[in-house]
Amino acid sequence: MRKIKTSALVLIAATLVLGASTPQEDDVVFLSLDTVFDRGAIFQDRNSDEVIDFVNARFVLGNVPTPTEITAAAEVAARLGFETMALDLPLPRSAGEGTMIVIGRAGVSRARLSEADLRLDTLLPGEGLVTVGHLANDQVLVIAGGDDRGTLAAARLLAGRLPHVWDPKGPTLTDVLTNVRDFLSDAGVVPAGMAVENVHVKAEDNAIDRLTITVHMSSAADSVGAETALNRLADERITSPNQEAVDDDESEPKLSYSGARVVRINLFADSEALGFVDVPRAAPPADKPLAPRPGSGVKRSLDLSSVYSSDGFLGDANSDLIPDRTDVVIVPSGAGIDGTIDLAARIGLEVTGLSIPLVRTVDEIDAQIDRPFYGLYARLLIGLTVDETAECRPQANARDLHTAAADFPVVHRIPALLSQSA
Ligand SMILES: [Ca+2]
Ligand SMILES: [Ca+2]
Known about the structure:
alpha/beta; Beta Polymerase, domain 2; eight-stranded mixed β-sheet; two-stranded parallel ribbon; 10 helices; 26% helix; disordered N terminus; disordered C terminus; binds calcium ion
């Protein structure tokens, strides 16, 4: 079944030319964080078989991106590849076609977007934001931080967590929108429109720091009613916090998500901002043991013919011949690392289970040098060339590998084709 996917892969060296096929008229092209991985502005089904086969996106980074910005873009690219059954490589960069995915403040500047409009100007070092910007008639996906660490945190939030509220098995941003609408409707004030404005994250945190929802009310009076109801909820939660952690099978209190420290509701009426209310979560998630993920043996038959198989960068945990995990960490360093973005996208395309982080900066590797990663630790450079398979070392032992691997969120999927033929 992997062949289905592989045969759909199209490598195009030349610049992508649009026009041969265009999105269907009923394609939703509205770009929104809650539906960013649905069929729409970025993910398209160009032959109308209900399977995503086209990634309508281009990366915009600064003129001279840092290795960390490349790493951030590559993490996002891996998720793009993961969400589609076919992909044109290389992924277009700034001058190409497609929805812009802007990485880092240098990318924001290059795209001529306003940091203030995007709420990027107040970000501190280590803080990152995923949001949607507007440029003329285009919508732009923006992933940026107060510094490179913040940008990378935001990229990993998008690549490894969204559209879920952190926990890959927990509620989604769409659920949050529904919950906010229901809460306000119960309070007698029905929103006229809603959207996820942005998702704020801090490096090394274990939850979304702040999830901001824009709510448009029909009138200023309705906005006051909404503010009153939300403030009452927030005050109750602040004065009598629930100290009990929330287990998976418990339903959470109203507008409380263990994967988001705060839900901020921005209230508007007649396009005028009328204030916001921060609703803190009732309790953090319960500590739970991380599920072990099987490690891999040493890859003795790795060569360039086997990189995209279970003998290479990929792994097959359930032995059904379909690669369902990655057994590789990409560490971009040196000159010409831009192609890391395409390499990550290709790896994402080839697997049915993806772990983020897939790409690590040299600094991150240095900080964890004593900690075993996956079975294979290959240092890669670009153009699908193995520059040096330095430090291909045997795994320390299976238990340590489980521990290391279990720290990472694993996004699983059952693609339409696979589920049909299963
Ligand atoms: Ca299709
Ligand atoms: Ca498998």
